[in-house]
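Continuing the batch. This is chain 6 of the set; chains 1 through 5 are on the previous pages. Same settings as before, nothing changed between runs. Recording input and output for traceability.
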Amino acid sequence: MKYLTDKLTSFRKNGIHALTGNPVPHERAMKNVILKFIPVLFLFLASMNTSTAQASDTSGGFLSENLLEVTLTIALVVCVLALMVLIVVLNVLKTFLSKQKEEAAAKAGIPVQAGQESFWVRFYKNFNDAVPIEEERDVLTDHEYDGIRELDNNLPPWWKYMFYLTIVFSVVYMVYYHVMDGPSSAEKYEMEMTAAALQIENYKASLAISLDETNVEVSEDAAVLDQGKEIFVSQCAACHAADGGGGVGPNLADAYWIHGGDIKSLFAVIKNGVPEKGMISWKALLAPEQIQAVSSYILTLQGTTPQAPKEPQGDLVETPVN
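Output for chain 6:
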C-alpha cells in the first residue's frame, strides 16, 4: 500500500515520468505507448490467424469454414476496443498533466502560453460540434423541469454522417436487389441451404473416414437399418440366408458367435473377412458407414426364428455387448 501511495505522490509531482521512467515529455511517452501497442496488436492477430487456421484444418466439418472469420472478427473487435480505451485514457492523462503544468506555472508566476491544438483535438471538436461549458448559456432553452434546463445543441456531425450513410446504403440496396439482378431473399435462402447441405455432407464424410472397429457404435436409425438390410440381402444372403439362418456361413440369428457378437467384432469381421473360412474382406467394396449399417442390421436378427436355422457354432453369448 505504501508503494502505491508513493507512486501516486510521485506521479502528481512528476507526471507520467514517474510511472514510465521515461525522460521524454509526456506527449512523446504517450505516442510511444500507442506505437508499441500497434505492433503487438498485429502480432496477436497473426497468431490468432495461424492457430485458428490450424484448428480449422484439423477439425474439419461444416463449422470449420467459418471458424477463422468469426475468431478473427472477435479478436479484431476486442483489440480495437482496447486501443480506443487506451487512447481515451492517455488523452485524459494528457489533459490532467496539462492542468498540473498550468497550475505549477501559475504558482511560480510564469505566464503560460496557449499551445496550438493538435489535429486530433480539432478533429474531435469538429466531429462532435459540442458547445463548451462556458458558452452553454447561449444555447439554453425555456424548457425547464425540476430545476433542469434543456440545451438546444446541434446534432453531432458523426450522427448525421451515419444517417446520410444509411440513406446511401438503402438506395444502393434497392437498386441492386429490386432493379438489377441481385438475388431475392428466397433465392439467397436456397443458396445458403444448398451450401449448408454440402457442408453437412462433407462433415459426415469426414466422420465416415475415421469410423472403424475401435469406435463404431450400433445405429438404431431406421434409414441406416434399411440400408443395412438391403446390403445384407444383396451381399450376405448367399452365405447366411436372407433371414440370417445360415448356410455356407454360420447362423446369425442365434446366440452363438465364432468371432464375438458385439458391434465392434461384427464390424471387424466384415471389414477384414475370415480368409480361412472363405469369407472375403469387404473393406474395398463397402464404405465404413455401410459396414456399420449392415452390422447394426445383423444384430436386429437376434431372437428371430429363421425358416431353416443352421446348428449353433461358436461360443454362447447371452447378451451381445454393443
